[in-house]
Amino acid sequence: MKSQTALIADSNFIPCLQLLANVGDVELDAGIQSAFEGGLIGTDEEDTWYEWPVGKLVVAVKRDEIGMGLIWFRVQVPHGFTRAVDVVLHACGSYRLNEKAML
Question: Parallel, antiparallel, or unpaired: how do β-strands 70-77 and 50-54 relate?
Answer without folding.
Answer: unpaired
